[in-house]
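Protocol step 4 of 6.
Sequence for Metallo-beta-lactamase domain-containing protein (Methanocaldococcus villosus KIN24-T80) entered exactly as in the expression construct, tag removed. Do not edit the line below.
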Amino acid sequence: MRVEIIFLSSGGGRWATITQKKATGGFRIHTEKLKMHIDPGPGAVVRMSQIKINPWNTNTLFISHCHPDHYTDGEIIVEAITYGMTKKRGVFIGSLTAVEGFGEYERVISNYHKSKLELAKPLYPGEEIKIYDCKIKATHTKHGDPFGIGFRLETVFGEIGYTSDTEFFPKLIEDFDGVRILIANIVREKNKKVRGHLNSNNAIDLINSMSKKPELLIMNHMGLNMKNPKKEAEYISENTGIDVIPAELGLKIELLNGKYIYKLKKVKI
Ligand SMILES: [Zn+2]
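Step 5 output, structure tokens:
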């Protein structure tokens, strides 16, 4: 049995994305059966090649909302899932906006690409479906895209939570209470405010409000202003009492019973 989280990103937001001073390829969760790519922003396939992840080894795409730092490489991921559109295969799960489009938010995967998937399904917060050997439940967000979702994924080694882009609001506490690993998109340091996003102090409040705190917090989707992610991780850790690791291109977390293994494949950005 195997559960791994592999990062192809550390950055997010417009400046990190435009300059690629931080990678924006999203992250992956691999279990025995599920091979899911989450939020493949610009460079996802390039970053996969850099850290030697086999793109064919993908069967699920998750896109949390309609901002380009979360979706631009999505159709290429669908092409990988479907072996270059030659086989009907795999699953695409995302916000209503990402899957079907709504108002000014157009769907991010074309009908042509969706036609080769076995399932293309929007999830609303609170909705849950089974995918391969896992269960995924959509969580709430408060962000620009009104239909944005995060998730709570149930694996054989416990639950993995992903906040996606959201500001802090009480629903998050209930949505992520008791997850084993929490991946949170933390854009700014300490209490530096940024509309629609979390800063470090928000993450501290979120974790300290839970009745059961996660074992590990991974900071993801950091903005260019987040100058020293390691120092920021220490700050969050000191104020919550849990392990905190900043995401990095090439970071792999392997979950085992009661512990996790940290591995880093150092790659030049
Ligand atoms: Zn966003």
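Step 6, annotate. The mean pLDDT is 97.
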